[in-house]
Amino acid sequence: HNNETIERINRDKAAENETEQNIDAAVSAALECIQKAEEQIADATRQMDELSKQEETYRLSSSEFSDRAAALSGEISALSVRLADCRVTAETANSSIEEIRSRISAIDESMGTRKDDYDALLKRKADAEAELEEIQDEIVSVKNAIDGYTLRFENRGKKADSVKLAIDEKQRELHKGQDRVR
Question: If pLDDT is split at 50, 70 and 90, which confidence band does 64 have?
Fold first, then answer.
């Protein structure tokens, strides 16, 4: 029964190790996504700054650039939307990382508890094996004692039989003697 429990704990540990590896891969993927999002944010911010400077230059230059300013304004709006999307993606990735970290913490705690259970079972197994060895030694001792008593009983039985035969012989002799005397 102890071996079955130990095997079950080993299987559970292997499953938890596999889950932890999957979580580590998810964390790595989320970190890469955050890094890309941060790069996109920096790129979009830089482009927005450049476009803002260009827009200001065009406004000051003349009315011939008013169409260009409108186009740049549209690009700035599009980049603002893209920047907002990147921020949402980054926040989602951050919350995913926090959730994954809490799961890893729970798994680590569970593995620690199971290791304690496993160690306790190993100790119980060792104690049971020691007790079994003591009992087996006691059985051998009792068996040896029984064999000794059996041998003594057999020897006494043989002596009793020979004494009985001797008594029977003496009684016959006595009866023969009594019969002669009569």
Answer: low
